[in-house]
Design goal:
- By secondary structure, this protein is mostly helical.
- 52% of the residues lie in helices and 9% in strands.
- The protein contains 8 helices and 4 strands, in the order αααααββββααα.
- It has helices at 20-24, 30-62, 67-70, 78-88, 97-103, 141-156, 160-170, 175-196, and strands at residues 108-112, 116-119, 122-125, 131-135.
- It has a two-stranded antiparallel ribbon with strand order 1-4. Strands 2-3 form a two-stranded antiparallel sheet.
- The longest helix is centred in the N-terminal third of the chain and has 33 residues, at 30-62.
- It is extended, with a radius of gyration of 23 Å.
- It starts with 19 loop residues before the first helix and ends in a 14-residue tail after the last helix.
Length: 210
Amino acid sequence: MFRSQAVVCTGRKLYGKRHHDDYLKELDQDGPRRRAEYLYQELDGLQKLRRQVRHELIVACRKHPAAKWLQSVPFLGPLRTAVLIGRVKTPHRFRSKRQFWAYCGLALETRDSGEYCVVNGQVERRKRPVLMRGLNWNHNHELKNLFKGAATTASVGSGVFQQFYLGLLNKGMQPEMARLTLARKIAAITLKIWKKGEAFNPEHLKPQAA
């Protein structure tokens, strides 16, 4: 709304309640200003509802016996733990970490872009398929955002997960692939300790663990 009226609004300041009037003064025309006022009223109502739902979600999560184990994983706070428990229900749905990765959208797969190509005007079958490597498409989007968000935060925070991430960078891995590897590691550790009913241990970061 504000960008369409050429109002500079970078960062989160635009959404702060105490700055509403300052930004509304930047709109010269009555129509855009009125629409912005209604949008601010809608935002204020949603923020209040969000805080209430967030509180109730965390309170409900505390009643689950697995909450204390899952929250012991660095960067899996009360809210992420609540979403995880609500979406997964039980870790025993997944026989291995690879099945859990696929459910979370963290599984690697190859795709063939086409078996045939045109050579000298003739359609011929490729001797070698052209494969593209990427993440699986069929997954739970909330869990993918959860683990990728945790990995992004962990990569810039302090602790054992950051050390693991920096170790991958030192081996020559690109930052985006290192963050993906860290997200897969966090997901594997989460599944492991949830199944066993134990708290997080830095030893889980060793290659043979999780």
